[in-house]
Design brief:
The protein has 259 residues and is an alpha/beta fold. It has two domains: 109 residues, Tetrapyrrole methylase, N-terminal domain (Cobalt-precorrin-4 Transmethylase, domain 1, 3-Layer(aba) Sandwich), CATH 3.40.1010.10; 118 residues, Tetrapyrrole methylase, C-terminal domain (Methyltransferase, Cobalt-precorrin-4 Transmethylase, Domain 2, 2-Layer Sandwich), CATH 3.30.950.10. The chain is built from seven helices and ten strands. It is elongated, with a radius of gyration of 21 Å. The mean pLDDT is 93. It binds S-adenosyl-L-homocysteine. S-adenosyl-L-homocysteine binds next to helix 4 and strand 10.
Length: 259
């Protein structure tokens, strides 16, 4: 009986964890586009990845929305062992709430190599939609990516109440359904109720929606809107439109080296 043919060593391709970007199919890297176009197997996070990215590609595409970790990993591993080009497609950037750690550990334990290719996080697509700079000189120089505790707990030392003390810019993921609690925690933690806040739903998608307000009124506005999920909460004094503090970077007296 003839043994099953395995591909020669050089024909194995590392599994690629790929950032799909926030939605707009043009907001994927050139590298990401090439990897999708040449892939044989794509396993994508169907709840948030724009399937328009998969139009016309030759790969066998699997939506991971209804699959558990084991089923996802078997799809990736089987493709790898056949010598195929395998892409695990995640929304935004895979390093942020992508749950790639457990997938990488699974591959590590089976000696399957992989690479990670970054993507445009929805945090940045939301900042772009709002046309804000999150790091305004003399206002704040810090951006916090976080979430409200939900089914996934958040350590108390980094609760919204504790993080609010810095009054930095914050991008709050996965939390719009709990907006009232978010606002209460932010105010309790130290942001004045007049602090500007915005919610961007489906940033960069054709049906993107923006709601702006202050900590005092945003919860009511969101309650009265259709926004329930796939939204980013962006908060902090950097969002204030009337800020007159000009960046020193373009000040005539400032060293020009960093422009
Ligand atoms: N890795 C992703 C985040 C995945 S967690 C990234 O880097 O963007 C899922 C959360 O991301 C959602 O609950 C929502 O808060 C946010 N999100 C994802 N896509 C979004 C979009 N297009 N607009 C606004 N928020 C989005």
């Amino acid at each position: 009986m003839e043994a099953m043919q395995s591909p020669p060593e050089s024909d194995y391709h590392p599994v690629v964890f790929l950032g799909a970007g926030p939605g707009d199919p043009e907001l994927i890297t050139l590298k990401g586009r090439r990897l999708l176009d040449t892939a044989d197997v794509v396993v994508y996070a169907g709840s948030l990845v724009n399937v328009a990215l998969l139009d016309g590609i030759k790969a066998a595409c699997h939506d991971s929305a209804s699959l558990d970790l084991e089923a996802i990993m078997e799809l990736l591993a089987q493709g790898y062992r056949r010598g195929e080009r395998v892409v695990r497609l995640h929304t935004g950037d895979p390093a942020i709430y992508g749950a790639i750690r457990e997938q990488m550990q699974w591959l590590d334990s089976r000696n399957i190599p992989y690479e990670v290719v970054p993507g445009v996080s929805s945090a940045f697509a939301s900042a772009a939609a709002l046309k804000v700079e999150l790091t305004v000189p003399e206002v704040t120089q810090t951006v916090i990516f976080t979430r409200q505790a939900g089914r996934t707990p958040v350590p108390e030392r980094e609760s919204l109440r504790n993080l609010a003390r810095a009054q930095a810019s914050m991008c709050i993921f996965l939390s719009v359904s709990m907006i009232a609690t978010v606002v209460a925690d932010l105010i309790e933690g130290g942001y004045p109720p007049t602090t500007p806040i915005a919610v961007v739903e489906k940033a960069s998608w054709p049906d993107q929606q923006i709601v702006r307000g202050t900590l005092a009124d945003i919860a009511e506005t969101i309650k009265g809107s259709q926004i329930r999920k796939t939204a980013m909460i962006v908060v902090g004094p950097a969002l204030a439109r009337e800020s007159t503090i000009a960046s020193k970077l373009y000040d005539a007296a400032f060293n020009h080296e960093y422009r």
